[in-house]
């Protein structure tokens, strides 16, 4: 049975101070804070979502802020680099913007593409790469327009304990196409416009350790609940240990750790982030699922206040 995922749904990382997280991804990168909620498995921790104007699949990067926790190590068994797609011709704008906010960067080449490589304040590795495909973001913030705004994900670089096994999963089970090899990387591509490219590093980066500055998991897209159940059965038939379906309020999820050690999630495209607040108000208030509503007074005392703000 051959199925195909459209590509990345979201990527979730662990960071430190939540206001620093908001300042960087909203204030510097100009993404919209589309949801301010909690980690459903650890309700004393924020779960913050940033993306395009609606937080559409293939645009949302999400975070668990762990203030004052240990720093992780980026390495095998993790997403090593998260890449964002920007419009053609917008690279000079982003070089100047990162310089303005004193963000150090380097220029790297991979598969004949120029990548602007940098890290966020807590160590998460990021890239910007110009891509023609994919709709422009209509979210405008602090001089960032649709001509320069991040569109969504370009893809990710996977650091695998077993690169060949991870590659076979992407190609033979998840329906991506192997489209090239270059030096230390093999590239796989889905049929989507955004979030469609996976580069697998072929040599070891050293063993990764989860903590602040690392990606917790990468999620791939399912159309709906029926499609997700087909994925669950398919993965189980391939001897992956798949979790029961988890209701994340804005999507439904299943999880499994692939044979290269990376935590994969399969997430439905719907119902989306407007299920509990209108599109024009996304991200403004702390939104809780019904099972945690009774905890709101205590959570407001525990969670550090955060806000989107213009930076100097």
TrEMBL record:
<dbReference type="Pfam" id="PF00903">
    <property type="entry name" value="Glyoxalase"/>
</dbReference>
<feature type="domain" description="VOC">
    <location>
        <begin position="7"/>
        <end position="131"/>
    </location>
</feature>
<dbReference type="InterPro" id="IPR037523">
    <property type="entry name" value="VOC_core"/>
</dbReference>
<dbReference type="GO" id="GO:0051213">
    <property type="term" value="F:dioxygenase activity"/>
</dbReference>
<dbReference type="InterPro" id="IPR004360">
    <property type="entry name" value="Glyas_Fos-R_dOase_dom"/>
</dbReference>
<dbReference type="InterPro" id="IPR052537">
    <property type="entry name" value="Extradiol_RC_dioxygenase"/>
</dbReference>
<protein>
    <submittedName>
        <fullName>Ring-cleaving dioxygenase mhqO</fullName>
    </submittedName>
</protein>
<keyword id="KW-0560">Oxidoreductase</keyword>
<feature type="domain" description="VOC">
    <location>
        <begin position="152"/>
        <end position="269"/>
    </location>
</feature>
<keyword id="KW-0223">Dioxygenase</keyword>
<dbReference type="InterPro" id="IPR029068">
    <property type="entry name" value="Glyas_Bleomycin-R_OHBP_Dase"/>
</dbReference>
């Amino acid at each position: 049975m051959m199925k195909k995922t459209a590509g990345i749904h979201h990527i979730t990382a662990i960071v430190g101070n939540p206001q620093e997280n908001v300042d960087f991804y909203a204030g510097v990168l100009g993404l919209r804070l589309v949801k301010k909620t909690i980690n459903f498995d650890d309700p004393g921790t924020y779960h913050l979502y940033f993306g395009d104007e609606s937080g559409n699949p293939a645009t949302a990067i999400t975070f668990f802020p762990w203030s004052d926790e240990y720093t992780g190590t980026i390495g095998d068994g993790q997403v090593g680099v998260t890449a964002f797609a920007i419009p053609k011709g917008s690279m000079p704008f982003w070089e100047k913007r990162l310089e303005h906010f004193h963000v150090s960067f380097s220029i790297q080449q991979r598969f004949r593409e120029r990548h602007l490589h940098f890290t966020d304040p807590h160590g998460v590795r990021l890239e910007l790469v110009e891509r023609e495909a994919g709709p422009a973001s209509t979210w405008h913030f602090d001089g960032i327009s649709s001509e320069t705004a991040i569109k969504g994900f370009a893809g990710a670089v996977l650091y695998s304990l077993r690169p060949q096994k991870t590659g076979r999963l992407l190609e033979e089970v998840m329906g991506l196409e192997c489209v090239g090899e270059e030096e230390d990387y093999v590239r796989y591509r889905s049929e989507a416009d955004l979030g469609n490219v996976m580069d697998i590093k072929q040599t070891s980066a050293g063993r990764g350790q989860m903590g602040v500055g690392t990606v917790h998991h990468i999620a791939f897209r399912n159309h709906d609940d029926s499609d997700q159940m087909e994925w669950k059965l398919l993965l189980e038939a391939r001897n992956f240990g798949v979790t029961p379906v988890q209701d994340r309020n804005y999507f439904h999820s299943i999880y499994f750790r692939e044979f290269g050690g990376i935590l994969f999630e399969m997430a439905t495209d719907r119902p989306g982030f407007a299920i509990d607040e209108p599109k024009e108000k996304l991200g403004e208030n702390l939104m809780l699922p019904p099972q945690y509503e009774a905890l709101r007074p205590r959570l407001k005392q525990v969670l550090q206040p955060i806000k989107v703000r213009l930076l100097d």
